[in-house]
Write a structure and sequence with these properties.
The protein contains 17 helices and 4 strands. It has 419 residues and is mainly α. A two-stranded antiparallel sheet has the order 1-2. Strands 3-4 form a two-stranded antiparallel sheet. Strand 3 and strand 4 form a beta hairpin. The protein is elongated. The termini are far apart. 35% of the residues are buried.
């Protein structure tokens, strides 16, 4: 009897298996996506933290550098003060306060203050001049040092008190408004005319009016200033030919006439008497730069200059009005915000940290300097156990011999090669 054959039939429910497999894959995929989301979230958080830390570190670094630079500038200011204690403290605090309403940096203000004091402005008046210089710099889109140099040049030339800084600034800004010149250029050339004009008793308003007219008529600021100065010199010290011609024309042409009538008054007499003829004007003003200015005024510029003079004389408050408008810009408002942060940093932990670090480094330097003593060179030595004096070796001469061991040593205590 043949063996019985057992047949087993296995039937697989593929539909159910497919559903189970799909569920399992979906679960794994869901878990993977969750992990991916967690990873992305972590990476995003870490990136945000990293960026924040980097930003804070950069800000602290910039603030620390600002404090250090301000400290350096105020140290320069300190060299010009006889009473450096309380005065320095008040000046430093004054600059910090001023920086919260002006866009200029505390370092820039410290630099300008040094120039103001260097111009012999009294210490007690210096912060007032600095305040006006920051106002002028804001209005003229210039820097405080340039504004301060221009203002102090005029004050000193005319012998004005520091209280006139606002008046000078207003006239300068009106010149910028009326002429074809920017504040920085004007501040750099006012000294060219201020000295000679003050000696000749010609007002700052009058030279400014002529400069505004000349620049508007195509001359640059530097050339205009030089031409005005040369024209004034020609009137103060006229040539023999100029004296003879003006005498024949029946006009007064000298320093006394300019003091009585002003620069424009004398020029008006000359232009009218010569009918603006260039040949005759060249005799009265033989120096070509002076003649250049006079010819520009003779060709219609004189009336413009007289109108500009009226505007100069009514320029009170011009700087403040312009500065108020200039301050309301994104750049200047951002600068003021940054200045306010600097002030808080200086008055807080930042200033203390810089002071502490400065003292620490100073201590290290002093310790190093005290350790560096000059070497005493011996001309004769007496060896131990003898009374004989001999010429020393090189190392004995500088005290680098260890008699206890009989070996020559370096000053630092190391055995010499071959010792």
């Amino acid at each position: 009897m043949p063996p019985q054959q057992l047949v087993v039939t296995a039937q697989l429910n593929t539909a159910q298996f497919s559903q189970s497999l799909q569920a399992m894959v979906s679960g794994i995929s869901g878990a993977g996506q969750s992990m991916l989301n967690v990873g992305r979230s972590f990476a995003s958080t870490w990136f945000a933290v990293s960026v924040t830390v980097a930003a804070v570190s950069t800000a602290v670094g910039l603030l620390t550098r600002s404090v250090s630079e301000f400290q350096t500038q105020m140290a320069r200011v300190n060299t010009l003060l006889s009473d450096s204690g309380e005065t320095m403290r008040r000046m430093s605090q004054g600059i910090l306060e001023l920086s919260t309403i002006r866009p200029q940096s505390i370092t820039e203000m410290g630099d300008a203050l040094y120039e103001i004091l260097s111009a012999a402005i009294p210490v007690e008046k210096s912060m007032g001049v600095l305040t006006q210089a920051t106002l002028a710099a804001t209005a003229g889109f210039s820097d405080t040092k340039t504004a301060a140099l221009g203002i102090t040049a005029v004050l000193n030339a005319y012998g004005m008190s520091a209280e006139n800084a606002g008046r000078v600034s207003d006239v300068m800004f009106r010149t910028v408004d009326r002429g074809n010149v920017v504040f920085g250029q004007l501040a750099g050339v006012v000294g060219t005319t201020a000295g000679i004009a003050a000696q000749a008793k010609v007002s700052f308003e009058e030279t400014s009016a002529v400069l505004a007219t000349l620049t508007r008529r195509g001359m640059d600021a530097d050339a205009s200033a030089i031409s005005i100065a040369q024209a004034i010199r020609a009137i103060i010290d006229p040539s023999e030919q100029a004296r003879n011609l003006t005498r024949q024309l029946g006009i007064e042409f000298n320093a006394q006439a300019m003091q009585a009538k002003g620069l424009l008054g004398v020029l008006r007499d000359v232009i009218n008497a010569t009918q603006g003829q260039s040949q005759m004007l060249s005799i009265v003003f033989p120096e070509w730069r002076a003649l250049r200015a006079v010819l520009a005024l003779a060709s219609g510029g004189l009336r413009e200059a007289e109108d500009d003079l009226k505007r100069m004389q009514n320029s009170l408050g011009a700087t403040g009005q312009a500065a108020e408008k200039a301050t309301d810009t994104l750049a200047n408002q951002s600068s003021i915000m940054w200045n306010t942060l600097k002030k808080a940093f200086v008055e807080g932990v930042g200033g203390q940290a810089v002071d502490a670090l400065t003292k620490f480094i100073k201590g290290i330097n002093e310790a190093r300097q005290s350790a560096e003593k000059p070497i005493e060179v011996k001309s004769k030595v007496t060896r131990p156990g003898t009374t004989k004096t001999e010429e020393p070796s090189v190392w004995e001469a500088i005290g680098a011999t260890d008699y206890g061991t009989g070996r020559e040593l370096w000053a630092g205590g190391e055995t010499l090669p071959g010792g």
